[in-house]
Structure formats: C-alpha cells, structure tokens
Amino acid sequence: MNSTLTQSKSAAAKPVRRTLLLYFWNTRLLYLLLLPGLIHMVLFKYLPLFGIVIAFQDYSPFKGVFDSPWVGFKHFINFFKDPYSLVLIKNTILLAFYNLLFGFPVPIIFALFLNEVRVKLVKRFVQSFSFFPYFISSAVTVGIAYTFLSPQSGLVNMLLQHLGLEPIFFMADAGWFRSIYVSLSVWHSFGYGAIIYLAAITGIDPHLYEAAEMDGANRWQKMWYVTLPSISNIIVVMFIINIGHILSVDLDKILLMYNPSVYETADVIQSYVYRVGFASKGFTDYSKGAAIGIFQSIVALLMVYGANQAAKKYSDTRLF
C-alpha cells in the first residue's frame, strides 16, 4: 500500500513540475530583466554583510579578516563610553527629525493643492518644474546655497545689507547649519515625493467626489474629507519608510557643507564613521567605523519595527 501511495504522489508531482517549468519558460524574458537587479543586490548588498565581522575584531588590512584578533564588543563599548558619541547621536536625530517634520508633509500638501489645478498645461508645468531639483546633484545644490548665502555677493546678504543689517556668514555658522540643510533637503526632494501621492490620488473613485458635491461639499471639504482619507494608507506606508531613515542623513550634502566651525551641529554618525574609517591623518580604524555603522542599522531596524507595529495597531496599513 505504501508503494501505491508513493507512486500516486510522484504521479501528482509531475504535472506540478511541468506547470512550473512551463511558467518559467513563458516568463523567461521577465526574469532576464530581473536578473541584473538581483546580481547587483547580491554583490553590493548581501555579500558585503559578511564584512561586519570586522566590528568584533582589531582588523588589520595586512592580516585580513581571518588573522585579525577577535576583541568582541570592545569597539561598541568604547563608542558608548566616548562623551562625543552623545553629540553625534543628538545631531543625527535632530537633523533627521527636522527633515521628517518639515520634509514629510510638504509633498503631501503640494500634491493636494496641485491636484486642485484644473488647467492641465499649468499642472504639468508646475509638476515638472518641482521635480527638476531631484536631478540636481548634491554638489550643485550646495554650490547654489553657497552662491545665495555668500557674505560678500550672496543675494540674501545683499538684501540684509539693504535693510541695514550686518551680513551673516551662514555656511560657517553652526546655528544656521540645520536650517540650511533641511531647507536644501526639502527643496531637493519634495517634487519627487509628490509624484507618489499624485499617483495615489489618481486612483480615487470619482464617484466619491460626486457624492461629496451632492452633499454640498466645497473644494476644501472634498480635499479634507475625500482626498486625504483616500490616500491615508500611502501616507502611513511612506511615514514608516521615513522612520527607517531617522538615523540616516544625506552624507554627501553634509560633507560638502560642513567644516570645523560647524562640527557642533553638523557632525553626525555617518560623517564621524567616514572620518574614522578614512582618516586623512594617522591609521584608519575600520573596526570602529563598522561597529558604529552596525549600531545605527540596529536602531533604524527597531524604529521601523516599532512604527510598523503602531501602524498595525491603529490602522489597517503595515509593511510586514
């Protein structure tokens, strides 16, 4: 009887295998298109994960991973004992928090108002014009900021002098660094973020607006009671994703903007890791840099998990 059951199972498995093989053959071109992305992910995302072992070693490039001495959590402990680590964490969290506070709602508000524009030509022009800064590199963006904020010939300081005020060297003032960084980040990315919400708005059932009009709702009320609730799921998802970057900042922009006079507010975890791992003076400390990077990733993972659990508890939207 057992042999009969085995034969029946193998006979039933053959059609399944044929179906799978037929499916992969019919969709082979799609999988070929997917292959370069998978190769890139494996080579540059997953394989480098094996390098985190150096965070638990006194790694030496001359000895390699296998011969470098194992030191356990030494570099993590040294980082937390360093009083400067609190400054780094504070600067990183504040920059990311201000970026989230001002940068997250701007694309939503912009998309809501742009959706109300009835002239299609104007709507397309404004959308394209707002999306344009996303293609500008961080180097050019910071260069524009230096030009506008120059203490000698900058437009902002010329206006201040016209009003009888003293010029300000904004880029060398630690108190202005966060405001400039957040402003550049919002200007650089709000047009790209608005595309996501505009795409979500186009999927709203038009009958909802018709029903709201029949109830006497004006354009503001339709925006508040129809459009915004209809894209709330997308807003929650984007918020969870942004929470994952709470300890991440635009390192390129910071490296281009900061100097020793603004370290007080500009020095963040990533810039410190860069200096530790690629020090211009003395010996580099790859192990300490890797340890700090792991700490940052773990905190970001915990925050994403917490935000996802909160979204699951208070709404029907979650990532996993």
TrEMBL record:
<feature type="transmembrane region" description="Helical">
    <location>
        <begin position="93"/>
        <end position="114"/>
    </location>
</feature>
<keyword id="KW-1003">Cell membrane</keyword>
<keyword id="KW-1133">Transmembrane helix</keyword>
<feature type="transmembrane region" description="Helical">
    <location>
        <begin position="290"/>
        <end position="308"/>
    </location>
</feature>
<feature type="transmembrane region" description="Helical">
    <location>
        <begin position="20"/>
        <end position="43"/>
    </location>
</feature>
<feature type="transmembrane region" description="Helical">
    <location>
        <begin position="180"/>
        <end position="202"/>
    </location>
</feature>
<comment type="similarity">
    <text>Belongs to the binding-protein-dependent transport system permease family.</text>
</comment>
<keyword id="KW-0813">Transport</keyword>
<dbReference type="InterPro" id="IPR000515">
    <property type="entry name" value="MetI-like"/>
</dbReference>
<dbReference type="InterPro" id="IPR035906">
    <property type="entry name" value="MetI-like_sf"/>
</dbReference>
<dbReference type="InterPro" id="IPR050809">
    <property type="entry name" value="UgpAE/MalFG_permease"/>
</dbReference>
<feature type="transmembrane region" description="Helical">
    <location>
        <begin position="223"/>
        <end position="247"/>
    </location>
</feature>
<dbReference type="GO" id="GO:0005886">
    <property type="term" value="C:plasma membrane"/>
</dbReference>
<protein>
    <submittedName>
        <fullName>ABC transporter permease subunit</fullName>
    </submittedName>
</protein>
<feature type="domain" description="ABC transmembrane type-1">
    <location>
        <begin position="89"/>
        <end position="307"/>
    </location>
</feature>
<feature type="transmembrane region" description="Helical">
    <location>
        <begin position="126"/>
        <end position="149"/>
    </location>
</feature>
<dbReference type="GO" id="GO:0055085">
    <property type="term" value="P:transmembrane transport"/>
</dbReference>
<keyword id="KW-0472">Membrane</keyword>
<dbReference type="Pfam" id="PF00528">
    <property type="entry name" value="BPD_transp_1"/>
</dbReference>
<keyword id="KW-0812">Transmembrane</keyword>
